[in-house]
Amino acid sequence: MLISKMKSEECHEFLARQGVGRLACARDSQPYIVPIYFVYEPDHLYGFTTPGRKVEWMRVNPLVCVQADEVLSQDKWTSVVVLGRYEELSETREYSEERNKAQSLLVKRTSWWVTAYVASVVRGHAEPPLPVFYRIHITDITGLRASTKGSPVRVR
Amino acid sequence: MLISKMKSEECHEFLARQGVGRLACARDSQPYIVPIYFVYEPDHLYGFTTPGRKVEWMRVNPLVCVQADEVLSQDKWTSVVVLGRYEELSETREYSEERNKAQSLLVKRTSWWVTAYVASVVRGHAEPPLPVFYRIHITDITGLRASTKGSPVRVR
Asked: What is the pTM (predicted TM-score) of this model?
């Protein structure tokens, strides 16, 4: 198996193709992971969710991590890790343009709406709560890619 | 699609079947996610890695989160989240019994060794560094399961 660090452009291309990952937030030093759908735009990830633990935590501490991977086989996989900062696109005039942008990007991924809605139903809301749109400002991206050929690092 | 909260026993059974997940640790409020292999035993997850950012961070702040999922289709999936505390099974007599236990449990998962070794090679170590064995004391487990029938929560 051959493993290589991905170049910045390769990480960006990978995120643009992916729409599913895991987001970690933290409160009082306790991290918490949730699966998310996202849309990548240069320097940002856009997401949508319903109110819950994740949103409460990110309002207090906006530092987050998103990880996305694609595993084709044990020796052929890609994993990208993003460090970033959460920004809620709140229901104010200030954010209306960014909210519309997020909505138009995210509406193409229908399963996303289902997942967010389902989470709210599980938590016992009679009526679906207001959606929460957010964007993550990307501050750092790193990635590793494994393949059976073509990488500069050989594993004996 | 029907979604239900999993009972505690169901979460435990799921973790016992799974061996792959994502671990989040945090330093100075910044979470960080890495893919991991693990072995579940009652109340603990056992893991193995090579020195790196993840280990440095968990030595400072042992609070971690592990998430594992199984996605069969968009409307049939399981996701379990564990909150816990990292404990390094260091190279001391005190930990020799637990280290041996971890090693015997983990050696059955060969891909794990490859992944840990690969990470060390990518970071440029000429010789493989000493492995780091650890266990995670589970303090909380929650899980959601989606299916097309049989769940008490219906999503309209």
From this structure: 0.85
